[in-house]
Amino acid sequence: DRLVGAVADGEDLAVEAALRPRDLHEFIGQSRVREQLDLVLAAARARGGTADHVLLSGSPGLGKTTLSMIIAAEMAAPIRITSGPAIQHAGDLASILSSLTEGEVLFLDEIHRMSRPAEEMLYMAMEDFRVDVIVGKGPGATAIPLELPPFTLVGATTRAGLLPPPLRDRFGFTGHMEFYEPAELERVVHRSAGLLAVEVSAEGAAEIASRSRGTPRIANRLLRRVRDYAQVRADGVVNREVAARALEVYEVDARGLDRLDRAVLHALLDLFGGGPVGLSTLAVAVGEERETVEEVAEPFLVREGLLARTPRGRVATPAAWRHLGRTPPEPAAG
Ligand code: ADP
Protein backbone atom coordinates (compact mmCIF):
# COMPACT_ATOMS: atom_id res chain seq x y z
CA ASP A 1 0.00 0.00 0.00
CA ARG A 2 2.78 2.43 -0.80
CA LEU A 3 1.93 5.66 -2.52
CA VAL A 4 4.80 4.94 -4.90
CA GLY A 5 4.03 1.22 -5.34
CA ALA A 6 3.55 0.18 -8.96
CA VAL A 7 0.91 -2.50 -8.38
CA ALA A 8 -2.72 -1.33 -8.55
CA ASP A 9 -4.63 -0.85 -5.29
CA GLY A 10 -8.39 -0.69 -4.89
CA GLU A 11 -8.66 3.02 -5.58
CA ASP A 12 -6.49 2.70 -8.70
CA LEU A 13 -8.77 0.03 -10.08
CA ALA A 14 -11.81 2.18 -9.43
CA VAL A 15 -10.51 5.25 -11.28
CA GLU A 16 -8.15 3.79 -13.86
CA ALA A 17 -10.91 2.74 -16.20
CA ALA A 18 -11.72 6.40 -16.74
CA LEU A 19 -8.10 7.34 -17.39
CA ARG A 20 -7.13 4.68 -19.91
CA PRO A 21 -6.22 5.83 -23.40
CA ARG A 22 -8.64 4.24 -25.90
CA ASP A 23 -6.50 4.02 -29.03
CA LEU A 24 -2.87 3.91 -30.09
CA HIS A 25 -2.77 7.65 -30.85
CA GLU A 26 -3.90 8.51 -27.35
CA PHE A 27 -1.35 6.13 -25.82
CA ILE A 28 1.61 8.22 -24.67
CA GLY A 29 5.24 7.15 -25.09
CA GLN A 30 6.48 3.60 -25.84
CA SER A 31 6.94 4.74 -29.43
CA ARG A 32 8.71 1.55 -30.49
CA VAL A 33 6.07 -0.84 -29.15
CA ARG A 34 3.35 1.45 -30.48
CA GLU A 35 4.75 1.47 -34.00
CA GLN A 36 5.36 -2.30 -33.98
CA LEU A 37 1.83 -2.98 -32.76
CA ASP A 38 0.40 -0.56 -35.28
CA LEU A 39 1.99 -2.64 -38.06
CA VAL A 40 0.92 -5.98 -36.62
CA LEU A 41 -2.69 -4.82 -36.25
CA ALA A 42 -2.90 -3.02 -39.59
CA ALA A 43 -1.61 -6.13 -41.36
CA ALA A 44 -4.11 -8.36 -39.57
CA ARG A 45 -6.93 -5.98 -40.46
CA ALA A 46 -5.84 -5.88 -44.11
CA ARG A 47 -5.90 -9.67 -44.24
CA GLY A 48 -9.30 -9.65 -42.60
CA GLY A 49 -7.95 -12.08 -40.05
CA THR A 50 -7.17 -12.30 -36.37
CA ALA A 51 -4.01 -10.64 -35.02
CA ASP A 52 -1.05 -12.77 -33.99
CA HIS A 53 -0.57 -13.52 -30.29
CA VAL A 54 1.16 -10.65 -28.50
CA LEU A 55 3.43 -10.79 -25.46
CA LEU A 56 3.91 -7.58 -23.47
CA SER A 57 6.73 -7.49 -20.96
CA GLY A 58 7.44 -4.77 -18.43
CA SER A 59 6.96 -3.61 -14.85
CA PRO A 60 3.51 -3.12 -13.33
CA GLY A 61 1.76 0.14 -14.17
CA LEU A 62 3.44 0.75 -17.53
CA GLY A 63 0.29 0.19 -19.59
CA LYS A 64 0.09 -3.51 -20.50
CA THR A 65 -3.60 -3.89 -19.65
CA THR A 66 -4.33 -0.61 -21.41
CA LEU A 67 -2.53 -1.80 -24.55
CA SER A 68 -4.43 -5.08 -24.56
CA MET A 69 -7.70 -3.13 -24.52
CA ILE A 70 -6.41 -0.94 -27.32
CA ILE A 71 -5.54 -4.05 -29.36
CA ALA A 72 -9.12 -5.26 -28.96
CA ALA A 73 -10.51 -1.83 -29.84
CA GLU A 74 -8.31 -1.52 -32.93
CA MET A 75 -9.45 -4.96 -34.07
CA ALA A 76 -13.08 -4.13 -33.19
CA ALA A 77 -13.05 -7.30 -31.10
CA PRO A 78 -14.36 -8.07 -27.62
CA ILE A 79 -11.85 -8.68 -24.83
CA ARG A 80 -11.74 -11.11 -21.93
CA ILE A 81 -9.42 -10.33 -19.03
CA THR A 82 -7.93 -12.89 -16.67
CA SER A 83 -4.61 -13.66 -15.00
CA GLY A 84 -2.20 -16.54 -14.48
CA PRO A 85 -2.85 -16.84 -10.73
CA ALA A 86 -6.62 -16.99 -11.41
CA ILE A 87 -6.12 -20.11 -13.51
CA GLN A 88 -5.51 -22.88 -11.01
CA HIS A 89 -6.45 -25.86 -13.14
CA ALA A 90 -6.29 -26.67 -16.82
CA GLY A 91 -10.08 -26.97 -16.64
CA ASP A 92 -10.36 -23.27 -15.71
CA LEU A 93 -8.48 -22.39 -18.87
CA ALA A 94 -10.46 -24.84 -20.98
CA SER A 95 -13.72 -23.24 -19.96
CA ILE A 96 -12.44 -19.75 -20.78
CA LEU A 97 -11.00 -20.84 -24.14
CA SER A 98 -14.09 -22.75 -25.17
CA SER A 99 -16.29 -19.73 -24.60
CA LEU A 100 -14.22 -17.33 -26.74
CA THR A 101 -15.82 -15.94 -29.87
CA GLU A 102 -14.04 -15.56 -33.19
CA GLY A 103 -11.37 -12.84 -33.11
CA GLU A 104 -11.77 -12.22 -29.37
CA VAL A 105 -8.78 -10.92 -27.42
CA LEU A 106 -7.85 -12.90 -24.33
CA PHE A 107 -5.70 -10.84 -21.96
CA LEU A 108 -3.71 -13.06 -19.61
CA ASP A 109 -1.94 -10.95 -17.02
CA GLU A 110 0.99 -12.45 -15.07
CA ILE A 111 1.09 -15.27 -17.57
CA HIS A 112 4.30 -16.59 -15.97
CA ARG A 113 2.27 -17.54 -12.88
CA MET A 114 -0.04 -20.00 -14.62
CA SER A 115 -0.04 -23.63 -13.47
CA ARG A 116 1.98 -26.12 -15.49
CA PRO A 117 -0.95 -28.16 -16.87
CA ALA A 118 -2.77 -24.97 -17.93
CA GLU A 119 0.40 -23.77 -19.63
CA GLU A 120 0.63 -26.95 -21.66
CA MET A 121 -2.99 -26.66 -22.70
CA LEU A 122 -2.28 -23.10 -23.78
CA TYR A 123 0.51 -24.24 -26.14
CA MET A 124 -1.91 -26.24 -28.23
CA ALA A 125 -4.62 -23.60 -28.07
CA MET A 126 -2.24 -20.90 -29.31
CA GLU A 127 -0.80 -22.99 -32.10
CA ASP A 128 -3.68 -25.09 -33.40
CA PHE A 129 -6.73 -23.38 -31.87
CA ARG A 130 -7.62 -26.65 -30.28
CA VAL A 131 -7.70 -28.08 -26.76
CA ASP A 132 -8.01 -31.59 -25.45
CA VAL A 133 -10.58 -31.71 -22.70
CA ILE A 134 -9.88 -34.65 -20.38
CA VAL A 135 -12.99 -36.42 -19.22
CA GLY A 136 -12.82 -38.93 -16.36
CA LYS A 137 -9.88 -40.00 -14.22
CA GLY A 138 -7.23 -42.72 -14.20
CA PRO A 139 -7.03 -45.40 -16.92
CA GLY A 140 -10.57 -44.62 -18.10
CA ALA A 141 -9.82 -40.95 -18.82
CA THR A 142 -10.36 -39.87 -22.40
CA ALA A 143 -9.25 -36.75 -24.23
CA ILE A 144 -11.99 -35.08 -26.21
CA PRO A 145 -10.57 -32.69 -28.81
CA LEU A 146 -12.34 -29.35 -29.00
CA GLU A 147 -11.94 -26.89 -31.88
CA LEU A 148 -11.58 -23.22 -30.87
CA PRO A 149 -12.33 -20.17 -32.97
CA PRO A 150 -9.21 -18.16 -33.88
CA PHE A 151 -8.45 -15.69 -31.08
CA THR A 152 -5.62 -13.35 -30.08
CA LEU A 153 -3.84 -14.06 -26.84
CA VAL A 154 -2.24 -11.01 -25.24
CA GLY A 155 0.05 -12.22 -22.47
CA ALA A 156 1.61 -9.87 -19.94
CA THR A 157 4.62 -10.57 -17.78
CA THR A 158 7.05 -8.55 -15.73
CA ARG A 159 9.95 -10.15 -17.61
CA ALA A 160 9.83 -12.14 -20.84
CA GLY A 161 12.78 -14.16 -19.50
CA LEU A 162 10.49 -15.67 -16.86
CA LEU A 163 8.54 -17.57 -19.51
CA PRO A 164 9.49 -21.06 -20.61
CA PRO A 165 10.87 -20.84 -24.17
CA PRO A 166 8.11 -23.01 -25.72
CA LEU A 167 5.52 -20.51 -24.49
CA ARG A 168 7.58 -17.47 -25.48
CA ASP A 169 8.07 -18.89 -28.98
CA ARG A 170 4.35 -19.13 -29.61
CA PHE A 171 3.89 -15.37 -29.56
CA GLY A 172 4.11 -13.69 -32.95
CA PHE A 173 5.28 -10.44 -31.42
CA THR A 174 6.84 -9.35 -28.14
CA GLY A 175 6.64 -5.74 -27.02
CA HIS A 176 9.12 -4.63 -24.37
CA MET A 177 7.65 -1.78 -22.33
CA GLU A 178 10.19 0.70 -20.96
CA PHE A 179 9.94 3.05 -18.02
CA TYR A 180 8.64 6.46 -19.18
CA GLU A 181 10.73 9.58 -19.60
CA PRO A 182 9.77 12.55 -17.38
CA ALA A 183 8.47 14.49 -20.41
CA GLU A 184 6.16 11.59 -21.29
CA LEU A 185 4.89 11.38 -17.71
CA GLU A 186 4.17 15.12 -17.82
CA ARG A 187 1.89 14.42 -20.77
CA VAL A 188 0.24 11.61 -18.81
CA VAL A 189 -0.36 14.01 -15.90
CA HIS A 190 -1.80 16.71 -18.17
CA ARG A 191 -4.06 14.23 -19.90
CA SER A 192 -5.34 12.73 -16.62
CA ALA A 193 -5.77 16.18 -15.07
CA GLY A 194 -7.98 17.12 -18.03
CA LEU A 195 -10.12 14.03 -17.53
CA LEU A 196 -10.37 14.64 -13.77
CA ALA A 197 -11.06 18.37 -14.29
CA VAL A 198 -8.01 19.42 -12.25
CA GLU A 199 -6.12 22.56 -13.18
CA VAL A 200 -2.39 21.82 -13.42
CA SER A 201 0.41 24.17 -14.47
CA ALA A 202 3.33 22.95 -16.59
CA GLU A 203 5.63 23.13 -13.55
CA GLY A 204 3.09 21.33 -11.39
CA ALA A 205 2.92 18.47 -13.89
CA ALA A 206 6.72 18.34 -14.09
CA GLU A 207 6.97 18.15 -10.31
CA ILE A 208 4.58 15.18 -10.19
CA ALA A 209 6.25 13.49 -13.18
CA SER A 210 9.73 13.63 -11.66
CA ARG A 211 8.48 11.82 -8.54
CA SER A 212 6.55 9.10 -10.41
CA ARG A 213 9.32 6.54 -10.89
CA GLY A 214 8.85 6.29 -14.64
CA THR A 215 5.39 4.77 -14.15
CA PRO A 216 2.05 6.20 -15.39
CA ARG A 217 0.05 4.43 -12.67
CA ILE A 218 2.13 6.18 -10.00
CA ALA A 219 1.84 9.52 -11.82
CA ASN A 220 -1.96 9.20 -11.81
CA ARG A 221 -1.99 8.25 -8.13
CA LEU A 222 0.28 11.13 -7.09
CA LEU A 223 -1.89 13.49 -9.13
CA ARG A 224 -4.94 12.43 -7.11
CA ARG A 225 -3.17 13.03 -3.79
CA VAL A 226 -1.86 16.39 -4.98
CA ARG A 227 -5.36 17.34 -6.12
CA ASP A 228 -6.69 16.59 -2.61
CA TYR A 229 -4.05 18.85 -1.12
CA ALA A 230 -4.70 21.61 -3.66
CA GLN A 231 -8.39 21.57 -2.81
CA VAL A 232 -7.98 21.52 0.96
CA ARG A 233 -4.85 23.61 1.52
CA ALA A 234 -4.70 25.83 -1.58
CA ASP A 235 -7.00 27.25 -4.24
CA GLY A 236 -7.42 23.99 -6.16
CA VAL A 237 -4.75 24.75 -8.74
CA VAL A 238 -1.78 22.37 -8.93
CA ASN A 239 1.35 24.44 -9.44
CA ARG A 240 4.93 23.50 -8.64
CA GLU A 241 4.81 24.60 -5.02
CA VAL A 242 1.50 22.93 -4.26
CA ALA A 243 2.70 19.65 -5.83
CA ALA A 244 5.99 19.75 -3.92
CA ARG A 245 4.32 20.57 -0.59
CA ALA A 246 1.67 17.89 -1.05
CA LEU A 247 4.20 15.19 -1.85
CA GLU A 248 6.33 16.28 1.10
CA VAL A 249 3.32 15.54 3.31
CA TYR A 250 3.20 12.05 1.79
CA GLU A 251 6.99 11.66 2.18
CA VAL A 252 7.63 11.19 -1.53
CA ASP A 253 10.84 13.08 -2.27
CA ALA A 254 12.04 14.90 -5.38
CA ARG A 255 13.25 11.70 -6.98
CA GLY A 256 10.25 9.56 -6.03
CA LEU A 257 11.87 7.86 -3.03
CA ASP A 258 9.55 7.22 -0.10
CA ARG A 259 10.19 6.73 3.60
CA LEU A 260 11.32 3.11 3.23
CA ASP A 261 13.72 3.87 0.37
CA ARG A 262 15.31 6.68 2.34
CA ALA A 263 15.48 4.58 5.53
CA VAL A 264 17.52 2.00 3.60
CA LEU A 265 19.91 4.63 2.29
CA HIS A 266 20.21 6.34 5.69
CA ALA A 267 21.02 3.03 7.39
CA LEU A 268 23.59 2.26 4.73
CA LEU A 269 25.29 5.64 5.16
CA ASP A 270 24.89 6.30 8.88
CA LEU A 271 25.42 2.82 10.30
CA PHE A 272 27.67 1.15 7.75
CA GLY A 273 29.67 4.01 6.25
CA GLY A 274 28.10 3.40 2.84
CA GLY A 275 28.71 -0.37 2.87
CA PRO A 276 29.35 -2.99 1.77
CA VAL A 277 26.90 -4.59 4.17
CA GLY A 278 24.92 -7.82 3.93
CA LEU A 279 21.23 -7.68 3.07
CA SER A 280 20.10 -9.31 6.33
CA THR A 281 22.09 -6.86 8.45
CA LEU A 282 20.72 -3.95 6.46
CA ALA A 283 17.15 -5.24 6.86
CA VAL A 284 17.53 -5.54 10.64
CA ALA A 285 18.88 -1.99 10.76
CA VAL A 286 15.76 -0.59 9.08
CA GLY A 287 13.43 -2.89 11.03
CA GLU A 288 12.04 -4.60 7.94
CA GLU A 289 11.93 -8.12 6.58
CA ARG A 290 14.79 -9.09 4.32
CA GLU A 291 12.34 -9.67 1.45
CA THR A 292 10.80 -6.23 1.90
CA VAL A 293 14.15 -4.54 1.51
CA GLU A 294 15.19 -6.77 -1.37
CA GLU A 295 11.94 -6.78 -3.35
CA VAL A 296 10.23 -3.52 -2.42
CA ALA A 297 12.98 -0.97 -1.87
CA GLU A 298 16.05 -2.17 -3.72
CA PRO A 299 14.90 -2.53 -7.33
CA PHE A 300 14.14 1.18 -7.65
CA LEU A 301 17.27 2.24 -5.72
CA VAL A 302 19.38 0.08 -8.04
CA ARG A 303 17.59 1.40 -11.12
CA GLU A 304 18.21 4.97 -9.96
CA GLY A 305 21.91 4.24 -9.47
CA LEU A 306 21.71 4.93 -5.73
CA LEU A 307 22.53 1.44 -4.48
CA ALA A 308 24.70 -1.33 -5.89
CA ARG A 309 24.48 -5.04 -5.15
CA THR A 310 28.02 -6.39 -4.98
CA PRO A 311 29.35 -9.84 -4.04
CA ARG A 312 30.48 -8.36 -0.70
CA GLY A 313 27.14 -6.72 0.07
CA ARG A 314 25.08 -3.61 -0.56
CA VAL A 315 26.95 -0.39 -1.33
CA ALA A 316 25.71 3.20 -1.50
CA THR A 317 26.86 4.97 -4.66
CA PRO A 318 28.21 8.56 -4.61
CA ALA A 319 24.79 9.61 -6.00
CA ALA A 320 23.15 8.22 -2.85
CA TRP A 321 25.39 10.35 -0.62
CA ARG A 322 24.59 13.41 -2.68
CA HIS A 323 20.85 12.65 -2.73
CA LEU A 324 20.81 12.71 1.07
CA GLY A 325 22.76 15.98 1.03
CA ARG A 326 26.07 14.46 2.06
CA THR A 327 29.55 14.43 0.60
CA PRO A 328 30.61 11.06 -0.78
CA PRO A 329 33.83 9.70 0.78
CA GLU A 330 36.99 9.97 -1.30
CA PRO A 331 37.71 6.70 -3.08
CA ALA A 332 40.57 4.87 -1.34
CA ALA A 333 43.92 5.46 -3.04
CA GLY A 334 45.46 2.59 -4.99
P1 ADP B 1 -0.21 -2.56 -16.34
O1 ADP B 1 -1.25 -3.45 -16.96
O2 ADP B 1 1.09 -2.59 -17.08
O3 ADP B 1 -0.02 -2.79 -14.87
P2 ADP B 1 -2.14 -0.46 -16.89
O4 ADP B 1 -2.39 -0.66 -18.32
O5 ADP B 1 -3.19 -0.95 -15.94
O6 ADP B 1 -0.71 -1.03 -16.47
O7 ADP B 1 -1.90 1.11 -16.67
C1 ADP B 1 -2.05 1.72 -15.42
C2 ADP B 1 -2.67 3.09 -15.57
O8 ADP B 1 -1.70 3.95 -16.15
C3 ADP B 1 -3.89 3.12 -16.51
O9 ADP B 1 -5.02 3.52 -15.82
C4 ADP B 1 -3.62 4.17 -17.53
O10 ADP B 1 -4.52 5.24 -17.35
C5 ADP B 1 -2.25 4.69 -17.23
N1 ADP B 1 -1.38 4.54 -18.40
C6 ADP B 1 -0.55 3.51 -18.66
N2 ADP B 1 0.13 3.72 -19.80
C7 ADP B 1 -0.28 4.91 -20.28
C8 ADP B 1 0.08 5.68 -21.43
N3 ADP B 1 1.01 5.24 -22.29
N4 ADP B 1 -0.54 6.85 -21.63
C9 ADP B 1 -1.45 7.30 -20.72
N5 ADP B 1 -1.82 6.62 -19.62
C10 ADP B 1 -1.24 5.44 -19.38
Brief digest:
This protein is of the alpha/beta class. It is 47% helix and 13% strand.
What this model shows, in words?
- The chain is an alpha/beta fold.
- It has 14 helices and 9 strands.
- It has helices at 10-19, 31-47, 64-74, 90-98, 116-128, 165-168, 182-196, 202-210, 216-233, 240-249, 259-270, 279-286, 290-303, 318-323, and strands at residues 54-57, 79-83, 105-109, 130-135, 142-147, 152-157, 173-176, 307-310, 313-316.
- The strands form 3 sheets. It has a 5-stranded parallel sheet with strand order 2-3-6-1-7, covered by helices on one side. The chain has a two-stranded antiparallel sheet with strand order 4-5. Strands 8-9 form a two-stranded antiparallel sheet.
- The longest helix is centred in the C-terminal third of the chain and has 18 residues, at 216-233.
- The relative contact order is 0.11.
- It binds adenosine-5'-diphosphate.
- Adenosine-5'-diphosphate binds at residues 16, 19-21, 27-30, 60-66, 188, 216-217, 220.
- This is Holliday junction branch migration complex subunit RuvB.
Please state how the strands of the largest beta sheet are arranged side by side. 2-3-6-1-7
Computed CA radius of gyration, to the nearest angstrom: 23 Å
Report the bound ligands by name, code or SMILES: adenosine-5'-diphosphate
Helix count from the secondary structure assignment = 14
Distance between termini? 46 Å
Largest sheet entry: 5 strands, parallel
Q: Which H/E pattern describes the elements?
A: HHEHEHEHEEEHEHHHHHHHEEH
- Write down how many β-strands occur, each being a DSSP E stretch of 2 or more residues: 9
Mean pLDDT: 95
Q: What shape does the CA trace take?
A: globular
How much of the sequence lies in strands comes to 5-15%
Q: What level of helicity do the residues show? A: 40-55%
